[in-house]
Design a protein that fits this description.
362 residues, alpha+beta, six-stranded mixed sheet, 23% helix, 2 domains, single chain, OB fold (Dihydrolipoamide Acetyltransferase, E2P), five-stranded antiparallel sheet
Length: 362
């Protein structure tokens, strides 16, 4: 689903950006706009161009061709320090020889703000990130999560219109990462700042974002809400990259049926002519386990993993190993039927290349 374009809402507009490092093309005719007060996540595998995009917005990299607009004005030649943009990096980049208060005040002192103003801003920022009383502490005495909060506080006091975050939670443990995700969402809502967030963590992107931009090899694969990206992927790459997925070769046999693994499955996806070869995408949680003979297809349970709130099972049917997530457990070595609602079978055109995929195959 495309974002509704209202010109006055656009804060950053990247138009036809290309960027190469040597002979390696990182971004190729890349265009993207970001709206005010939006939490946008750039998501994709390593090397897809997401960090380069962030650095171009910040002014740390200059595009080979193309234009960067901020509130309708071209800022290609504007240096980073003059952009109303701040960046929070994964490694925090706190000054170890400075106190927390001095770290937070650094940018304000560069801008020659009055002492009383700086002190008020330090107090405000520490309250905002829940670290009041830490003014005189040194960075090395803080936990990873606390250091990350200070890095965010240092960026916030400069009152940027955009806060860029480059995998800022990657070094934190799971519980702390989840806590910081909620913290960032709260700050975004309270401050009204536009967040542009870079990650390769799909769960993180789905949890935090208003809009997700899926990237691969310097191109945008899909833009949409987390619900759109997960439930309505536009191509096989997006479907396979976001969450767990079963992806099979199929052939459309009618407007309401697709054949895969030698069996006809009813489906609701339209727009394909009979005989068209397609990729069939089914999420593990959309498969219902039944007794043998009661589903559409039978298989053998090969593996069972307890995940806490559900079981993840591998069920082999006619040579293909389905991943199935269910609160009902079937023992490894037992037979089971698989039932899939027609609405949960997603059909996609096959890509132009005939590259072989070995999804779950042995």
């Amino acid at each position: 689903m495309e974002k509704t374009l209202i010109q006055n809402d656009i804060l950053i507009d990247l138009k036809h950006i290309t960027k190469s490092f040597g002979s390696h093309m990182v971004l190729d005719d890349f265009s993207l706009y970001i709206r005010k007060n939006e939490f946008v996540t750039l998501l994709g595998p390593s090397g897809c161009g997401k960090t380069t995009t962030l650095r171009i917005i910040a002014g740390f990299e200059t595009p080979d061709t193309g234009e960067v607009f901020f509130e309708g004005k071209n800022i290609n030649s504007l240096p980073p320090e003059k952009r109303e943009i701040n960046t929070v990096f994964q490694k925090y980049s706190l000054f170890t020889h400075m106190t927390i208060a001095e770290n937070i005040a650094f940018g304000l002192k560069i801008r020659k703000k009055p002492k009383a103003y700086i002190e008020e801003k330090i107090k405000y920022a520490l309250e905002l990130v829940g670290l009041t009383g830490f003014e005189d502490r040194c960075p090395e005495t803080l936990s990873g999560g606390q250091q990350q909060r200070i890095a965010i506080a240092r960026a916030i006091v400069n009152e940027p219109k955009i806060l860029l975050l480059d995998e800022p939670l990657g070094a934190l443990d799971l519980k702390l990462r989840q806590s910081m995700q909620l913290e960032l969402m709260r700050l975004k809502n309270e401050l009204g700042i536009t967040f542009v967030y870079v990650t390769h963590d799909q769960e993180e992107a789905l949890t935090m974002s208003d809009t997700i931009v899926i990237m691969n090899q310097g191109y945008i694969q899909q833009i949409g809400t987390p619900e759109d990206i997960y439930n309505e992927p536009e191509n096989a790459f997006v479907a396979d990259f976001i969450g767990d997925v079963n992806m099979l070769d199929g052939k459309v046999i009618s407007k309401s049926a697709v054949e895969m693994l030698g069996t006809s499955f009813p489906c609701t996806d339209e727009g394909f002519e009979a005989g068209t070869k397609v990729d069939v995408v089914i999420r593990p949680e959309d498969i219902v386990l039944t007794n043998p003979g009661e589903g559409t297809i039978d298989g053998l349970v090969e593996e069972v993993i307890f995940k806490g709130v559900h079981y993840q099972m591998k069920v082999r049917c006619r040579g293909y190993a389905f991943f199935v997530c269910s609160t009902v457990c079937r023992e490894a070595g037992s037979k089971a039927g698989l039932q899939i609602d027609p609405f949960n079978i997603r059909l996609m055109p096959k890509p132009q290349s005939d590259d072989e995929r070995a999804v779950h195959e042995e």
